[in-house]
Amino acid sequence: MKYICIVCDYVYDPEIGDLDGGIAPGTKFEDIPDDWVCPLCGVGKEDFEPLR
Fold first, then answer.
1. Do the beta carbons of residue 43 and residue 37 sit within 8 Å?
2. DSSP states of 1-52
């Protein structure tokens, strides 16, 4: 499932991951470390919600 940042609309896609942020492709959003931040605006995981 993809997740979207409610601040800047960045979409985290688990198939792609976030290589610049150290998140490997295939990593589920729930498995991302709690200190990870949005690569575009810098907010935390708490500001993401499931993309419907």
1. yes
2. --EEETTT--EE-TTT-BGGGTB-TT--GGGS-TT-B-TTT--BGGGEEE--
Residue with tokens 């690569």: 39
pTM value is 0.93
Return the ∠ at Cα 32 (arms to 27 and 37), rounded to 5°. Answer: 125
Instruction: Please check whether residue 1 is in contact with residue 50, taking contact to mean a CB–CB distance below 8 angstroms.
Output: yes
- Sequence-distant (6+) residues with CB within 8 A of 28 are 1, 14
Q: Tokens for 51? A: 């993309």
Kindly indicate the confidence band of residue 10, based on its pLDDT and cuts at 50, 70 and 90.
very high
